[in-house]
Write a structure and sequence with these properties.
The protein has 7 helices and 12 strands. Bound molecules: adenine (ADE).
Length: about 260
């Protein structure tokens, strides 16, 4: 309880020193990844810039800007930079779905980014790949703390029966996110990403957002719920579970915003 209070105080101080008051950027690649959150937004302004819609307003009293970035690194980098330059966001939260890379994870489980890495940025040699992203990007510890605190409060949708292993409730872990401009539906590639990057999940935007945030000194965290396991069934699983997974990720982000709005 005391720790929780201190954590929120730390977050507020963190946001207040960065700007008065802190504006949170909320990004997703697809509308379905933002729907549940945007329902709770009191919208004050809507702009369309370079074909994308930016909604500004408040969620649970917290000033926010929300935009759908589109799928992939270019669109998400563009949106992230615009949110920072044009809307002055003080912190960025990306919410959405991902493919599972860590074999311990199931559809519906959530990865809170500890760090994020580009998996498709490098040099291809006849028999190997040299990554040009040697360090990756570290998520902000205060935002990560906020997500983990929210994890203690959030009520997620149970894992669909047909996908259930031992657990009924989705797990929330702190892990590494791998990003590339590729939808992964290959077990061989899943294993390669696991072995090369020690990643927990794969998606198509996080590292681009992280890179933009890092170079602008804006704290970020990526929240991802698994819609598929990045294997040969990924396309079918994605269709079946994208809404379920997107909502679980949104539920965690909503809980983070509720904590910030307290
Ligand atoms: N987002 C959701 N599932 C994915 C996958 N298998 N590969 C890349 N991005 C994803």
């Amino acid at each position: 309880m005391f720790l929780g209070g201190m954590m929120i105080a730390a977050i507020l101080v963190h946001l207040l020193v960065l700007g008065q008051p802190g504006v949170i950027g909320i990004m997703g690649a697809m509308e379905v990844e933002l729907d549940l959150i945007s329902k709770d937004m009191v919208v004050e302004k809507v702009d369309t810039i370079a074909t994308k819609i930016y909604r500004s307003g408040k969620i649970y009293g917290v000033p926010c800007v929300m935009a759908r970035a589109g799928v992939g690194k270019v669109g998400s980098a563009q949106t992230a930079q615009l949110m920072i330059t044009q809307y002055g966001v003080d912190a960025m939260i990306f919410t959405g779905v991902a493919g599972g890379i860590n074999p311990q994870l199931d559809i519906g489980d959530i990865v809170v980014s500890s760090n994020v890495v580009h998996h498709d940025f490098g040099q291809i040699l006849p028999d190997s790949f040299i990554s040009f992203d040697t360090m990756g990007f570290f998520a902000d510890s205060v935002l990560v703390g906020l997500a983990l605190q929210a994890a203690g409060n959030v009520e997620l949708h149970a894992i669909p029966e047909e996908m259930r292993g031992e657990d009924e409730e989705p797990k929330i872990i702190l892990g590494r996110v791998a990003t590339g401009d590729q939808f992964i539906s290959s077990e061989a590639k899943r294993v390669w990403i696991e072995e090369t990057f020690n990643a927990d999940c794969v998606e198509m935007e996080g590292a681009a957002v992280a890179q933009i945030c890092a170079t602008n000194d804006v704290p970020f965290v990526i929240i991802r719920s698994l819609s598929d396991l990045a294997n040969e069934e990924a396309e079918v699983d994605f269709e079946a579970f994208v809404l379920y997974a997107a909502e679980n990720s949104s539920l965690l982000v909503k809980e983070m915003l509720k904590l910030l709005g307290q």
